[in-house]
Amino acid sequence: MNGAREVVAPATPDGVVLVALVERASAGELRQRGLGERLERGWRAPLAAGRCLAARLHRPLELLVVGPAGTREALAAERGSLDVVARARCLEIDADPVVARSLSAWIVRQARRARALHVLLAHDYGAIEQLPAIAEGLGAAMVSGAIGVELEPSGDLVWSRPSHQGKLVERLASTPDQAIVATVRPEGFAGDGESLGAPSPAPEPEDAGRLDVTSDAAEIEWLGDEEAEGSLDLAAAERIVAVGRGLGDPERLGPIRELAVALDAEVAGSRPVIDAGWLPHERQVGSSGVTVSPQLYLALGISGSAQHLAGMSTSRWIVAINRDPQAPIFRVAHFAVVGDLHAHASELVRALEEDPAPSS
Amino acid sequence: MRIGVLLRQVPDPEARLEVDAATARVAEGSSPWVIDESDEAALDAGLELAATSGGEVVAIALGPARADQAARKALALGARRAIRVETDDPASPDVRVTGAVVAAAARRASIDLLLAGAQSSAAGTGLVASASALALGWPWIWLVLEAELEEVGPAEGARPMLRVVQELEARRRRRWRVRPPAVLAIQTGRYHARMPAIRGVLAARRAPIETLEARELGARPEASTPGLRRVALDPPAAATGVEWIAGGAGGDGGGGDGRDWGGREQDGAEGVAARRLIRRLREVGVL
Ligand SMILES: Cc1cc2nc3c(=O)[nH]c(=O)nc-3n(C[C@H](O)[C@H](O)[C@H](O)COP(=O)(O)OP(=O)(O)OC[C@H]3O[C@@H](n4cnc5c(N)ncnc54)[C@H](O)[C@@H]3O)c2cc1C
Ligand SMILES: Nc1ncnc2c1ncn2[C@@H]1O[C@H](COP(=O)(O)O)[C@@H](O)[C@H]1O
User: Fold this and answer.
1) Contacts of B86 (CB under 8 A, 6+ apart)
2) Lowest-pLDDT range of A89-103, B42-56, B134-148
């Protein structure tokens, strides 16, 4: 996994912008659903970031996609949505986790060959884990979780990324010749890049060659994967009442459950609630839990971290109750109530009991 | 086995953050500073591994003088040594620089296994463990939920291998076997913050904390020229498109829009808000 440690070739100031995307699904899964959804969700943002940078810096945009057998064909089918990509290359590999760890060395080689000064990746676990290896191979500085980039008159780039659990946004400047490797958050670059360049299909994806697997077996060995346990299908729920650390005490779950019953909803929680053992793991919403998109999502005492939002932000109606008016959850909420969740939960139960839904 | 644990102080998660615009940092006085939750988990894991392997824990903090509090808590919980490297907070906007300093401190302390938090609630890059591992030339694993040392027979003489459970997206897990020296980034879940006993606290009060300058550690010079400068730290743009449901007086609910919200004299602010919210949810058709 440390195979990227070679001599650093300085990238040229006129280098390309390279978007490198890794599909970790199996060949079977890919055959079933294609790349459409992946492009729509996690990959839209790094592609928009690439378009945005390429347009601002007047540099070509190149695309590198790694995935299981069939990736190249799936990518070719989506060419129409990959406007302004000057060149697309594709590497098909067996997604063995040890192989995946040596991908960074391969991405470094490709980026050098393309003389890439800026490399953009999706902000997923695999990319975050391997980012420093890619950066080191390119002599690049790292931006973790970019949501935007601006070009200053001086030629400096200013990258924005959320910090302090989304309560603040940090802006980091890099000089024009500074190589940068960035992961781009799915919610980032919204509205960027759409109007850049005429929508023309990308060229046919090329075969990017093979991956020479450098074995790390001496120091690291993969023992296997485990699927999630549990039989609850939280993603199928039409309504969800979710509690966060603001609950304070598991003894106080009673009224929350009553509220869920009154709303005909499932109870769910943010990670701290599950970590503390107040609710079982199958009820965790977020990037490391379940992704849900119910008609109604009621968030009680949840601050709205990026990892939580990743699991619920596409819900149809989001209601947030939080005593902190600055809580980031309010940025995705449709209805917001500032106050104590316990008092509001019991009043909601009372109001629903006294005034049940008009029978239809 | 000598286990290094990185400790980062973060603003109290409940605090209202204020930013010092001149330095683009969280204002020192705007919040109490506490050990990051994932670092508390790393410390728990480190103490547990040390107990089962007969090893010891060395706490490593980078930061201004207040970071001594974090080091002291680790000493109170049974860490053998504590090191603080004098830096700003955060140490650098360029994680390569932070990684080089951490690596130098780990070398200085002859660490065999380095534990960090997976992702702090402050900068939250999630990159410090891996950047430090690269600088050390060691393997690393991010998002470690559990770590255990394998038993080794006396004849083998080698360091025991680690068995690690790693978190993946969407509730999946992956198991690895790693040979130390290595760096593990600990994720919350199995490991939790410990509370020191009074005796430990009293003993830690007098224990020395080794304070070092990054320069003295000889961090790699090529990495000390940061490729990024922090130019601003601001609250995000205000939320738009959200409908605020206020409480307020009973009667018409005090909505101020002349509508009958169905509020009643005896309702408190929460009762009024509850009725308004339910009314609105019915209007949009979700109830
Ligand atoms: C790799 C990784 C994966 C992760 N995956 C997930 C995931 O899948 N799901 C997830 O949720 N998190 C996940 N996290 C954790 C995430 O970063 C946050 O730490 C977590 O979401 C915070 O949960 P919270 O909002 O409940 O707690 P906090 O952030 O502590 O927020 C508590 C909120 O409650 C409010 N509050 C307190 N008391 C009251 C009261 N009486 N009435 C009303 N409001 C009150 C506070 O104002 C605060 O906003 C992950 C983190 C990492 C690093
Ligand atoms: N100043 C610091 N001192 C000690 N450890 C740190 C420091 N900054 C980061 N770390 C470690 O790196 C982890 C990830 O930090 P972050 O980059 O903020 O996500 C933290 O949880 C700590 O374990």
Assistant:
1) B63, B64, B211, B212, B213, B214
2) A89-103
B-chain residues near A222 (CB < 8 A): 174-176
Nearest to A88 by CA among A202, A210, A198: A202
Measured from the CA of A288, which atom of ligand 1 is nearest?
8
Ligand 2 probe mutation, B3, B8, B57, B96, most atoms within 8 A of CB: B8
The DSSP 8-state label assigned to residue A35 in this structure reads T
Mean pLDDT comparison of A49-63, B38-52, B200-214, highest-scoring range: B38-52
- Given A220, A295, A316, which is nearest B176 (Cβ)? A220
User: Whose Cα sits closest to atom 36 in ligand 1?
Assistant: A246
Stronger pLDDT, B63 or A25, i.e. the higher one? B63
Q: Is the ipTM of this complex over 0.90?
A: yes
| Cα R_g (chain A), whole angstroms | 23
Identify the residue whose tokens are 């904390």. Answer: B209
Neighboring chain A residues of B122 at a CB cutoff of 8 Å: 163-164
- Please state, in angstroms and rounded to a whole number, the distance separating the CA atoms of residues B142 and B116: 9
Longest dimension (CA), chain B: 85
Backbone angles phi, psi at B2, to 5 degrees: -105, 120
The answer to whether the CB of B140 falls within 8 A of the CB of B184 is yes
Provide the whole-model pTM.
0.93
